[in-house]
Amino acid sequence: MTVLSISGVHKLFNGNPVLRGVSLDVDEHEVVALIGASGSGKSTLLRCVNLLEQVDDGTIHLDGRDITDPRADPDQVRRRIGIVFQAFNLFPHLSVLDNVTLAPLRVHRMPKAQARAKALALLERVGLADKAAAYPDRLSGGQQQRVAIVRALVNDPRLLLLDEVTSALDPELVGEVLALIRDLKGDGVTMILATHEMSFARQVADRVCFLDGGLIVEQGPPEQVFGAPREPRTRQFLQRITDAGRL
Amino acid sequence: MTFQPSPLQLERDAYRRRQTILSVAVAAVSTLVVGILLYAAVTGAPGWDRFRASFLSAEAARDSLPAVLRGLWLNVQLLVVCAIAAVLLGLGIATLRTIRPAVFFPLRALAAGYTYTFRGLPLIVTLYLFAFGVPGLRLSGTPSVLVLGGIAIVLTYGGYIAEVFRAGIESVHPSQRAAARSLGLTYRQTMRHVVLPQAVRRVAPPLLNDLVAMQKDVGLISLAGPIDAIRAAQIETAGSYNYTPYVVAGILFVLLAIPVVAVTDWVTLRAARRQSGDNRL
Ligand SMILES: Nc1ncnc2c1ncn2[C@@H]1O[C@H](COP(=O)(O)OP(=O)(O)OP(=O)(O)O)[C@@H](O)[C@H]1O
Ligand SMILES: [Mg+2]
Question: CA geometry: angle at A103 spanning A102 and A106, to 5°?
Fold first, then answer.
């Protein structure tokens, strides 16, 4: 079953095209990795899906409903999509628990006890139950990102978008976040992740999409994209990454 | 096993203690010297005796104190009401000024016009316009001069406080809004639960500073007629031709300001510590 269907999406910033007709279908329980050079538009695409940016052409359907229709309520759409950014995720004035329960309480009108219980169960799962009362500035970067992922998950999103969630982290903290994402895949969470961690994309993704020049130039199972790329541009990109010692 | 400092550490501690004692001693001596010099200069002035008689008369102070204190109570009440009203007004105006959608342009423009006007207008002019101008319109139900003067103070300070809040709102990183909106929070919920709490925390020190300034300026209400501390002092002065009641009122205003100033310093210090995350620097 198709959860998300992006078709012919264009996005321009001040007249500069960043996306030039991107199409991508994501099935239920599927994990799609977006790779591509810095500035290739990975974040822009995710922000378009979450309606933080308005597309300039094309359509995006979530569960068969056109969310790019100006009549669609963006708040309703965002309630069904979770997103975690590279950094600046958590609200610094709220404790970990309050960060996680904010949306369940205010958006989904969940009873307080239920929201707390659900949040604590998820925090327990990511090994952070003892940090529930702490404020974000007392947490390590890896812990903060795990809380941010929990905060997105507590709303039972239909789709989880992860935008380079490890790139602001020290190498020794990357592992704990990647382990969590691997767990989520085991649970069947549908995800799109933009990443520079090629080895991780290779292990966890069902499909890898290479974004270049505003288009998905090549997509396929990781073995194919990483092992036997068909497009010269993909080959060049992977070669550069290999030379930089990141594959 | 308990920690046993090495001789090196003991020597360092002793040195630091000596330094502390020395600097306290230096500060005490220099304060004393400056104090003596100032005292000599002031009391040695040719007009000192006359000055003391008309500004520092203990007798006049004792006589005027009850009336001035009664007046001060009015200042305190006025301050509390005006402070609350000005903070609410400022918060509202600041929020209006940061609303993005185009349909709100007229409101935004109005809010901007308000902050420009009332920050530029001297308080005394606003006060006269409201206290004397508005009753001149002879509208039915015109409130008392006290209320009108209070409105003038609130409007003036609301303009300053709005700008303080606006700076605070704009200092919250845009990705905080993005994070809140992406959780499904509406614009209002994002403002209410994410942006404003952070903004208010950041602007607490300058806000309290505005309140200290406001506390002095509520004394200007005396120009419009209500008998506050300053006006009471003026009445006392008119009877005795002695200016000591003004000094009494001034001292009372300073005493009143001390708690607010102390809270301001404490909040500023705490905010600075929070930001740096270090309690010693
Ligand atoms: N709000 C904006 N205004 C103008 N230009 C923007 C804006 N957001 C992104 N861009 C531009 O769009 C292009 C794509 O940016 P995007 O952040 O999507 O890249 P990315 O693939 O996520 O890169 P990275 O791997 O470095 O995160 C860049 O050239 C960027 O400068
Ligand atoms: Mg990016």
Answer: 80
